[in-house]
């Protein structure tokens, strides 16, 4: 087990349903700590840059429209195996396939509007954290 950091985003559907406390509380209950946190209303350019790896996917335009529709909360979660722990807590990308009790099962409506994002590897976590936070903002 290794101490890691990972990027988490609470997406516009979840911020709009007033779920910030429930979601952040769940991360803390599961042993992750918030190393950095900010509420942001992403510009189109910021959303497209963050999801650049998906640029050629058919859902890219829909994804960026959704991510800019209302504010998000971007966070750095820290803890033992934080990347995998966050993904376990979130559940599958598609809420219809997510396990009982996971954030996406509890709070997400569809694969497009799926409440939360989490980095999928330690390498991508480093890239995604650097996209939103300076090193001096991580505590
Ligand atoms: P996320 O973990 O933020 O990473 C990429 C996002 O693309 C994903 O969550 C989904 O919200 C979205 N996504 C993936 N597949 C689809 C799809 N088939 N249709 C719409 N959105 C999708």
Give an overview of the whole structure.
With 139 residues, the protein is of the alpha+beta class. Helices cover 40% and strands 20% of the residues. It has seven helices and four strands, in the order βααβααβααβα. A four-stranded antiparallel sheet has the order 2-3-1-4. The radius of gyration is 14 Å and the shape is globular. The two termini are 21 Å apart. The structure holds adenosine-3',5'-cyclic-monophosphate (CMP). Adenosine-3',5'-cyclic-monophosphate binds next to α4.
Question: Short summary of the structure?
Answer:
The chain has 139 residues and is of the alpha+beta class. The protein has seven helices and four strands; from the N terminus they run E-H-H-E-H-H-E-H-H-E-H.
Topology (SSEs and partners):
Blueprint: E1 3-10, H1 12-16, H2 20-29, E2 33-40, H3 44-50, H4 60-67, E3 72-80, H5 82-90, H6 103-107, E4 116-118, H7 122-132
Antiparallel strand pairs: 1-3, 1-4, 2-3
The structure holds adenosine-3',5'-cyclic-monophosphate.
Key structural traits:
globular; binds adenosine-3',5'-cyclic-monophosphate; 7 helices; 40% helix; four-stranded antiparallel β-sheet; 139 residues; alpha+beta
């Amino acid at each position: 087990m290794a101490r890691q950091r990972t990027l988490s985003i609470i997406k516009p559907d979840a911020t709009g349903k007033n779920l910030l406390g429930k979601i952040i509380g769940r991360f803390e209950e599961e042993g992750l700590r918030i190393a950095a946190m900010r509420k942001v209303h992403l510009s189109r350019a910021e959303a497209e840059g963050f999801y650049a790896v998906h640029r050629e996917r058919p859902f890219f335009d829909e994804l960026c429209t959704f991510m800019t529709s209302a504010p998000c909360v971007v966070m750095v979660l820290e803890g033992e195996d934080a990347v995998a722990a966050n993904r376990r807590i979130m559940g599958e990308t598609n809420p219809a396939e997510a396990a009982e009790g996971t954030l996406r099962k509890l709070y997400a409506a569809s694969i497009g509007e799926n409440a939360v994002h989490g980095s999928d590897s330690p390498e991508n976590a480093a890239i995604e954290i650097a996209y939103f936070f300076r090193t001096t903002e991580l505590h």
